[in-house]
Specification:
The structure is a single chain. Helices cover 38% and strands 7% of the residues. The protein is mainly α. Strand 1 (16-18), helix 2 (23-27) and strand 2 form a beta-alpha-beta unit.
Amino acid sequence: MSDYSFYESGIIERPACANDHIEPFLDHKIPHLWSYYCTAQCVDVANRFMAMPSARNRVYGLQVYKYGIEGILHWGFNFYNSAFSLRHLNPYEVTDCDGSFPSGDAFLVYPGPDGVPEESIRLMVLYEAIQDHRALKLLEQYIGKEAVIELLEEDLSEPITFRSYPKSNAYFMGVKNKINRMIKKYI
């Protein structure tokens, strides 16, 4: 969902909003908001395409935490076909569904021996984003959400939004270490 008017008109009760169109939903403090990204979310916002730096995937956990997003969606876990599934593809050789989607959009795992999936770097980074989110929720229990957000943004020149966010690996490592040190004080 990318148009706030659909929600406003009552057509949708629980929106799952594209992260590049989420601002009106956040401005109106919509409860139970979900977020997603996929093919169209290719400028400025979080996503996991192979051509993108990992920070654009990793930051999603911080954004979802800060804005209280209740859930996230993405369609592509192991889609190894061309568009409309007209032919099966080897994702080790063709990463863009025969030019139908950006590389990395359609799958997070590779087919492995004996049907056991093999992780992609993008899946590992998404896992880190989810772990960041879980750690932030834990720390919130001890110091409150406002203090956690202050911790996330204390060394930044501007607040974290869905379009403006830290892009350096050093930031993510540093903030993770700060969060872990804070949690250790309480456990």
